């Protein structure tokens, strides 16, 4: 694992290396932490997110599993109840479909059903998202599969630092956590301070501004940074990071200051997580709003396999900049790109 040590003492490493480093640091700190998954041991993970772990911690704590997500997720639930802290790796988020019962019906409900006598301190990690040409069956984000499940926390980091710090927080949490890793970010480099702690449920204000509040997470955070530069708008950028529970206080305080809200999602328009943000903001701050909040999303179509179409599918910095500019200019909700091009009624 190559890394660059910066003057401040932080390390410049890739997003995927931040994941592996967080896993290693937690396994060193707590002998109850173990890893289950397909190809996580000998192959060091399909995306090299468990690099070096088998060599250091051995096959009892770093376990390759059969291709049976239901079986090894269920095994993790049992191990967690018995005092271990298992981390399950789901190669692609879509593969969680065959194991949802173990996560949302068993793990997420165990504390409630046992009247607090049992807890399930487990983490389910899954790669997700578009941008690498994996096609419609391997490129969805699917936060809405798990975000409406009481008892389950849901996290999506946006850079190497949040990947490291939030994964450690997730492993230390006494209840089950769904940890969604945006696959296109695995190769991105960034500074990581291993002493920096982050709280689950606490958003990061990455840029302060007075004109408009921009809320995003995952790979869209980087795209929003570029959109702000293109537009020249003094936007406040918030990396939500935790979808459940989301940081209402930080978002509402920002919108109360700017009077405007835009949520940018790498998810289809229907059923996106941003709808909850808009609903709560409109309900709480209706009289303070200068314009109607709106969302910038992907269209309600499968993720295309073609590289050209896939790049068109997700929100681009140029289109986000267009919509921000139009909103500030006339106070109206801009049309999505597919509406402008006549691809949707």
What would your notes on this structure say?
The protein contains twelve helices and 15 strands. With 345 residues, it is an alpha/beta fold. The mean pLDDT is 95. The termini are far apart. It has a seven-stranded mixed beta sheet, sandwiched between helices. It folds into two domains: 183 residues, 3-Layer(aba) Sandwich (Rossmann fold), CATH 3.40.50.970; 130 residues, Rossmann fold. The longest helix has 15 residues. Helix 1 runs parallel beside helix 6, helix 3 runs parallel beside helix 4 and helix 7 crosses helix 11. It is globular. Helix content is 34%, strand content 20%.
Question: Which properties best describe this structure?
Answer:
about 350 residues; alpha/beta; Rossmann fold; 7-stranded mixed sheet; 5-stranded mixed sheet; about 20% strand; thiamine pyrophosphate; Transketolase_C; Transketolase-like_Pyr-bd; Transketo_C/PFOR_II; Pyruvate dehydrogenase E1 component beta subunit
Known CATH architecture of the largest domain? 3-Layer(aba) Sandwich
Number of strands: 15
Q: Which structural class should the secondary elements be placed in? A: alpha/beta
Q: State the CATH topology of the largest domain.
A: Rossmann fold
Strand count, sense and barrel status of the largest sheet are: 7 strands, mixed
Mean pLDDT: 95
Uncertain regions spanning at least 5 consecutive residues: none
Portion in strands: 15-25%
What level of helicity do the residues show?
25-40%
Strand/helix succession: EEHEHEHEHHEEHEEEEHEEHEHEHHH
CATH superfamily of the largest domain: Thiamin diphosphate (ThDP)-binding fold, Pyr/PP domains
Count every helix, treating DSSP H or I runs of 4 or more residues as helices: 12
CATH top level class name of the largest domain: Alpha Beta
What is the 3D form? Answer: globular
Structurally, how many domains make up the residues?
A: 2
Radius of gyration: 20 Å
What is the end-to-end distance? 50 Å
Strand order of the largest sheet: 4-3-5-6-8-7-13
